[in-house]
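call fold(seq) -> tokens
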Amino acid sequence: REIDLSDFSLVENLRWKHIENASDISGIVFPSTIDTDSFNFYDRNISGCDFSSVYGLRWRHIQNARDIAAVKYPATFDIDNAVFAARNISGSDFSLIGSLRWEHIMSASDIRGIKYPASFDTSEAKYYGRDISGSDFSLCKGLKWSHISLAADLSGIIYPDNFDYSECDFTDIDVSGSDFSKADTLQWSQLANAYDITGIKYPAGFDPDSADFSGKDISGSNFSRVAGLQFAHIRPAKNIRKIVYPPQFDIDNADFTDRDID
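ret:
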């Protein structure tokens, strides 16, 4: 049976023998009491599995799995023994592993969407030419523009609350899906010349009066924190589909006639 995405976190008596013959075990949430030494993940897809409570998980348990993308690791995982060379670890959640360093992941084939721990030293990371789209740096208070500016793809990044946007130059860069919501210093001038601004999550301090969305595709934008957003600000935009509006939005002044707002 396919039991992917099953949440067994409360099932204290779950044992490997109960699920080992399932056809799909990806995305399972494991309980802390699971018998890790019985694991046999050889050639299995364990992508998306949540081992965050499985304090006994070791690299030897998962090294022979076919797919280890988007795994959520426990704080006690033996990261120094892990060999991610040529492995796809996109979407991995290392947020609980305080000892994670660049050397542990630098040889992986895919590092998109990783969630980094607060202690991760971004100044040591060599992101030049690497696709780090979707990376979650929300806990990384030391992140600077210079650490990521030369990456191949910056779309979908989650920035920390103290990030200094004044250093950024997003000219011709795809920042679609970026989560800027945690830092109020974001200015329109930093986004004006970006290649793609769709799906951005804006901070409460963003000034919509300074923005010029004329002819721009702002579909998927999340303005839920931008109290001052008015219809006049977005009227000139080319695409206003899938927008998330703030509670204070002046809906009585909005004219969506012949506009796609699905």
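The helical segments are 16-19, 59-62, 102-105, 145-148, 188-191, 231-234.
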